[in-house]
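User: Some background: our group keeps a shared notebook of sequences we're curious about, and every so often someone picks one and asks for a predicted structure to add to the entry. Today it's my turn. The entry only has the sequence so far, pasted here. Could you supply the structure so I can complete it?
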Amino acid sequence: MDLSRKMSVDILFAYDTDKERLPLIIDKYLKQYDLSVAQKKRSKATINEIIRNRGIIDHIIEKSSSRKMGNIQPKLKSILRLGCYDLLFDEIIPEFAAIHSSVELGKNLVNKKSGSMVNAVLRNIQRKKDSDQAWLKSIKDSKVELSFPNWLVKKWRKQFGATNTKNLCRTFLKKSPMFLRVDTNQLPLIEAVSLLNQNGIEVECYGILNSFLKVLSGQEKVLDNNLFNCGIISIQDPASAAVAQLIKPENGDIILDVCAAPGTKSLLMAQKVGNNGKVFASDKDPSRVELAKSDIKRHKNKNIQWSILDATKDRFPMVEKILIDAPCTGTGVLGRRPDIKWKLKKKDFQFMREIQISILNHMSKFLKIGGKIVYATCSLEPEENVSVVNEFLFSNKNFSIIPSNTILPREWVNSDGFLMTMPYETGSDGLFGAVLQKK
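Assistant: Of course. Here's the predicted structure to add to the notebook entry:
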């Protein structure tokens, strides 16, 4: 039995049945299985893509088995999903190998009868695929919204309309691209492009924001590239950088950056404020703070000071600029983190909203008069964005909104004057940002 495939089934099963986040589940099982680096990398990618396309995969399995997924034994469900993915989405594994190995998994991990069911279902899928070359594409085009919870799709239709919701789902069904930010103080953009291309990393300039490159191929080589390891390039989504730019970091500024780990925005601001400035970055998660601290060895910016602090209750120095990268449901980054969507619950929006309001109210105490707070999330939901800002403004009459279109490209700013990037329009993550000034 193929150990890497057995591990994939174990992880998919654990994701369905445990409350732990997928990255933690994957890390746990990678430590348990003695696999090569290449096997681990491939299994991780396969798992993420199965979860990304799970709704469509489940639809195909139901149509090919005449059984509802809820009536299929959980471990068997994971085996069928893996087999279906290998047959229809994986261009490397031969069809006979995908079927045979899945049947063996069914026999060994469940029982002999399950092996027979796996064989029958996958053979049905194979026949449909072979008889109609356009069959899978037509399902992916017409059933794209199946790969998201039905209640979330209905919510988005009310917020964005039917057409934009379909566009959003189509965008999130593709893996988000990797972007690189170049520190142009160290190296001109054109030289960075040339050096990366010479090292097998094909990039193109991202036109909306200067100093950003979109990686077209060679993503797996970035972390070993010298430009990355000496801090000249960093992996960052353009929308994330737009949030940091809202604070307008300038040479000599002292900035509070809370809920900041792992620190991509902190680094951008540190590079802007220079040696005469300081970024006091903090997060309440010790492991994430350690990760951010370890990145200093790479970029060597000594003007970031990391602390473990809770933005809802701890004390901070008084400053003129504060960035709140608030914890949120993450619906704007489902292209990067497809596992989030299947764990989301309706009550999560209100739960996160209460935390966000608590952070905004508490951190406003440490802002000097005339200073600015940037409140940001990677959520698309009004409950976590404009609603939080409006509630804060209602309770704090000494604050007002500074429209974001005075700082960012107009196409990134909504009619209310807030940063709001929609992935199907910008090709970036979906982020919200509001600039609030203390009078």
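Suggested note for the entry: The first strand starts at residue 179 and ends at 182. The longest helix spans residues 112-131.
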